[in-house]
Amino acid sequence: MPQPDQSRKLRILDVGCGINKYPGSIGIDRNPASRADVLCELDRLPYPFRDDSFDELRAIHVIEHLTDVIATIEEFHRIVRPGGIIRLETPHYSDHSSFCDPTHKHHLTSFSFRYFGEDHGGFGYYSQARLRQKHLRVKLLSFWKWLGFEFLVNHFPRYRRFWEYYLCFVVRGKALVFEFQVLK
User: Fold this and answer.
1) Which of 2, 74, 86, 149 is the most buried (most CB within 10 A)?
2) Containing domain of residue 119, as a range?
3) Does residue 32 fall inside a structural domain?
4) pTM above 0.85, yes or no
């Protein structure tokens, strides 16, 4: 896995940066009122960057707004260098914010990006883009976090699966935070 030269600054792309662009990143957004460095329609692919242009890509509360999740992840994969990082954050499908925002097109779970990993559930043929999940954090509503459910969900994958199948509309999720390594 190639490592970035430590003497050079990491190139970070903040997709859908809005007015809170990640410090030191290049921001891309569709809204001219944002702090974006590049304005473009995020659903119109490809983005105006060369292959392997970035060491890291951040898409914080963006993926749920885009029309084609698979094509978007493939585009992220294209513009991040091999071994680079993709960070995604999205509402958990059991959180009320997932459904109360009319601009949300997708309601995602902690297993929604399996298509791109080694454990693709037999559906790896949908995309050639491959990612290794390095980190997943499920955020629960404060009450459930305080009671210890967030710890259980995040430290025991079998419990997380049980929670998502049977409990998540009682013990509500808030958000999902993913970190993927790009495999090429």
Assistant:
1) 86
2) 12-138+176-183
3) yes
4) yes
